[in-house]
Amino acid sequence: MQQKRNIQIIEWEDLDKRKFYSFGVFMTMTIRATVYPATLIRTRLQVQRGKSLYSGTFDAFFKILRAEGVRGLYRGFMVNTFTLISGQAYITTYELVRKYVSQYSEDNTVKSLVAGGSASLVAQSITVPIDVVSQQLMMQGQGQHLTRFRLGSDTEGGKPKKKVFGQTRNIMAQIFAADGFRGFYRGYVASLLTYIPNSAVWWPFYHFYAEQLSKMAPSDCPHLILQAMAGPLAAATASTVTNPMDVVRARVQVEGRTSVIETFRQLIREEGVWGLTKGLSARIISSTPTAIVMVVGYETLKKLSLRPELVDSRHW
Description:
Pfam families: Mito_carr (PF00153). GO terms for molecular function: branched-chain amino acid transmembrane transporter activity. Keywords: Membrane, Transmembrane, Transmembrane helix, Transport. The chain has 316 residues and is mainly α. Helix content is 69%, strand content 1%. Strand 1 and strand 2 (159-160) form a beta hairpin. It is globular and about 60 Å long.
């Protein structure tokens, strides 16, 4: 009975690091590509005033699809792929901090909370400049009137401009001209206030839900299924708790604001408390498949990356 209740956690020292990083890049890229359209929709919903452009998640999806095509749902995706670096930094930091904290506490909740928050701090320091640029690209098309920066003409000297990174350079040049280097870290504090709590909450709840589900499930139920169910539950919990700051973060970064507090006050003043829930459904919708893919991918990644001598000693 005890075996059934305890889902084994593969720790850092159990892994073959070469396999871990090789498989990890592929896993992260797959997740990014899967959930990017929902991320784009969430950003546009959070930045719009009231319901000036879209009435909700599905309305936004179909309007973007009709007006901009499938490519419209992937605006800014190429530059966003550079977050692969932050993804690997996040995973490494999480596992190393878990190992470090275990020297002082064996409580899994404590290890998960501290490691999750620390991993997010490191990852956001890398991610924010990428997010600032990719969010400006996300807002082009139907949402371009909501942002400070617009893409230039698609032609130059009568010849078509190169797309993809040409648009990225265009936006980066405008950001630097307007705000200097600091412009690429606009919303950094808001991002930390959003993602550090989100990550710190997600991991403890993930392990909590997995343990609770294991107590209710049949003893022969594969642990991976329980973990795949626990992931979305933890994601929905963390998204609900941190969504107000996520709305503020999106507005600070896209609209070029400097004050997190003033942005928060204006949001409450103009749209009331319900303004703090903007984009929540899109966030949960995007976080659900993300959590499933991430959990299944991450737990499978760790299983595949186990040192050979440990493979037969683990029960899944």
